[in-house]
Amino acid sequence: MSKNSVTLIDVAKQAGVALVTASRALNGTGFVSDETRKKVVAAAKALGYSPNLSAKILKGGRPNLLGLAVSNLQSSVINEIISAVSLAAKQAGLDLIIYNASTELGAPKQQDINRVLGGLCEGILLVLPTAQEGLLAEFESSSVPVVLINYWRNETRLPTVRGDNYEGSRAAVEHLIGLGHSRIAFITGSSYTGQSQERQRGYQDALKQAGIRPVKSLVVQGDFTQSGGFEAAQQLLAQPKRPTAIFAANDAMAMGAMDALKERGLQIPGDVSVVGFDDSPASNHVYPRLTTVRQPLSDIGEQAVRLILQRIRGSSPAEGGDDAPIELPSTLVIRDSCGPAPEAVLG
Amino acid sequence: MSKNSVTLIDVAKQAGVALVTASRALNGTGFVSDETRKKVVAAAKALGYSPNLSAKILKGGRPNLLGLAVSNLQSSVINEIISAVSLAAKQAGLDLIIYNASTELGAPKQQDINRVLGGLCEGILLVLPTAQEGLLAEFESSSVPVVLINYWRNETRLPTVRGDNYEGSRAAVEHLIGLGHSRIAFITGSSYTGQSQERQRGYQDALKQAGIRPVKSLVVQGDFTQSGGFEAAQQLLAQPKRPTAIFAANDAMAMGAMDALKERGLQIPGDVSVVGFDDSPASNHVYPRLTTVRQPLSDIGEQAVRLILQRIRGSSPAEGGDDAPIELPSTLVIRDSCGPAPEAVLG
DNA sequence: CTGAAAGCGCTTACAG
DNA sequence: CTGAAAGCGCTTACAG
After folding, report:
1. Residues B225 and B86 in one domain
2. Which residue of A has its CA nearest to B89?
3. Are the CB atoms for B41 and B11 separated by under 8 Å?
């Protein structure tokens, strides 16, 4: 099973020391003379020794392994989170293994995640935005430290790191208002994650604060997919008084909306402005380049790794404390898909 | 470390049998009476027992773990491969852990992959299209079975499963020729993986077979990115005699080319037809929907799992045999981005 | 069909 | 600072 059968015993023999000493030298545990340490390290290197993770784990040693379970590998946001976590873990000297708890493979089960990741890893990072309360409750009683990433759906006592949705959303809508728009539509996502609601709340509050009366027909149901955004936009454009700006709860829907606008021969942003959410890679490549909101994904990765490390090393200041979720600020990324409201131009 | 401290001993006690018997009952190994087995299984369930993977592995047991190392998590093709492998692994009763050997984290090292995956998994699947010969050579001498997915770059003795590039590419170009095109441009990808070359070979052979003289200026260097495709297309369109069709070595570049065409006010496919490669999710959402070539990604996942299972269980018919790579046929996905060549329409 | 013993490779007390 | 012993949780021969 293991790559080569070089064991710690071989290293010890080669270095002319006892097994224990070799272990200590390699792990930097306990007292070893510098000379001995050098001999052992040299021997290990010469033999191409790499420790047997299983044995290490079994003995309660630090395998230096972090687990990451994700519910979706097709999402650009989740993939960026994975990249960020990978980098942060590497910088912290941790190896990362990823478990695909995709809903395509059936509902993510704590049992599965724990069977695979729980026995191997020192800590587990969870990117399961759709997870239900029950699933999380199981993790709460787990003995392996767990940190939640980008989770909003339910209340939970698990430590959480997430990007802001509300303020970013407000900023987007305020940007439109600043451009003179008042007929601003919102395309919602599906309600499974709680993120769409947060974004909608930001939309509503921004309107309210600007003294703009909310128009019910300007809020249309979407589902986070491009075709959903396309259809939602068609619905909006079929209305007698069409909006001058469309804010979609994510980029995919914003792009769908752009398609719908183009199909009608409407100019973006000349006739209608469009804003998305996520700053997906594609958002910078569509024409016109999409104005959108970006979550601080690398910060999220870093903070999540920092948090889990605290729990693992037991140096958490508030042990067992129900700290409030860490919420990192999103930023508005202004590109080319928004312009002055047509009325404002005429006025 | 482990989720709960229920061990096999607890189960055995609860069931009123010896430790060994419990082990056998749960693993289906050796002889156990039906009655005993039921008792043990019930006890295990009641206690919420889940075996300690480390101990299992250490004893040479079957952890039922498969490893998958990937070089890039931003690629839609690789993500579809991950999904396919996840599904195939699950169906085979295997758990899958993924290791991010992304080039962003430094060059993928066999040492890293093996340290993490090698000690834990029964077999390793590699999606490392950019891997150099040296890296692969290290895996060849590894004692853990390894299977390569979608690898072309170099010769290797490692068992390989991959999607066809050449024939799919030919089919795409023949489709264009069938529509009356003869000024067909090709935008290459970067040369790091060997895939672009394969696709170019298909392009050239299709032209040759149709008796169309290759025009050097119609082959332009790209880099697999959308902006690369955009620039390559601009180059093509700046030529005195512009192509009537553009075949890009992947979808991202094809979309970039579409952007360039739109910017020039050219109709797709009225003025210029466009074909991509990959059938990325976005290709079905751009306007017009992109005609492209699709690799049989789920077949690839299934075959790769089948192959690695053969190696693991040692039931490989040609043990140690240097079987030729398994190459699965790609298919042309015809959508809306190709039409009759303008000349043909006029003629 | 069932059980007692040995040992996978390592680390953590416990002695020198 | 170094070493001999015990044991993590399991499975695989070896006896009954």
Report:
1. no
2. A105
3. no
The tokens of B282 are what?
Answer: 């976005």
Tokens of A46: 């010469």
Tell me, yes or no, whether A281 and A204 share the same domain.
Answer: yes
Find where tokens 């870093």 sit: A302
The strand C neighbours among B residues 28-87, by Cβ under 7 Å, are: 30-33, 35-36, 55, 58-60
Helix (H) or strand (E) segment spanning residue B48: none
CB contact under 8 A, A119 and B226: no
Indicate whether A62 pLDDT > 70.
yes
**pLDDT at residue number A316:** 52
Residue B321's pLDDT band, with cuts at 50, 70 and 90, is low
DSSP for B243-287? Answer: -SEEEESSHHHHHHHHHHHHHTT--TTTT-EEE-SS--GGGGTSS
CATH code of A40's domain:
1.10.260.40
Task: Residue A34: count other Cβ atoms within 10 Å of its Cβ.
Answer: 8
User: Using CB atoms within 10 A of its CB, is residue A125 exposed (0-12), middle (13-18) or buried (19+)?
Assistant: buried
The pair of three-digit structure tokens given for residue A99, joined into one six-digit string: 């478990």
Residue with token string 């017009």: B288
Tell whether B172 and B289 lie within a shared domain. yes
A227 domain-assigned: yes
Chain pair A-B, CB pairs under 8 angstroms: 160
**Mind telling me how many Å the CA of B314 is from chain A's nearest CA?**
13
Judge contact between A287 and B259, C-beta under 8 A: yes
**Has residue A71 been placed in a domain?**
yes
Q: What would the two tokens of residue A135 be?
A: 């699933």
Chain A: nearest CA to B245, how far in angstroms?
Answer: 21
- Answer yes or no: do A12 and A79 share one domain: no
pLDDT tens digits along B3-38: 457 899 999 988 999 999 998 898 887 788 888 888
Q: Give CA–CA dist B303/A135, Å, rounded.
A: 33
Across the interface, which of A4, A99, A263 has its CB nearest the CB of B143?
Answer: A4
**Residues A171 and A313 both lie in one domain:** no
For residue B89, what is the domain's CATH number?
A: 3.40.50.2300
Indicate whether B308 belongs to any domain: yes
The answer to whether residues A203 and A341 belong to one domain is yes
The predicted-structure confidence for B278-289, as pLDDT tens digits, reads as follows 999 889 888 899
Same domain, A254 and A274: yes
Is residue A130 within 8 A of residue A294, CB to CB? The reply is no
Chain A positions touching B122 (Cβ under 8 A) are 1
Min mean pLDDT across A11-15, A196-200, A273-277, B294-298 is at: A11-15
Residue B125 has pLDDT above 60, yes or no: yes
Determine if strand D comes within 7 Å of the CB of B18. Answer: no
Question: For the stretch A36-66, what's the b/e string if a residue is b when 16 or more beta carbons lie within 10 angstroms of its beta carbon?
Answer: bbebbbebbeebebbbbbbbbbbeebebbbb
What contacts B291, CB < 8 A, 6 or more positions away?
B172, B175, B273, B274, B275, B276, B332, B333, B334, B335, B336, B337, B338
How large is the average pLDDT for residues A253-270?
A: 95
Cβ atoms of A101 and A71 within 8 Å: the answer is yes
Minimum distance, in Å, between the CA of residue A251 and any CA atom of chain B: 12
Q: Which domain holds residue A248?
A: 166-295+333-346
- The number of domains in chain A is 3
A72, closest residue in chain B (CA to CA):
B83
Shared domain check, A278 and A176: yes
Q: Would you say residue B221 lies in a domain?
A: yes
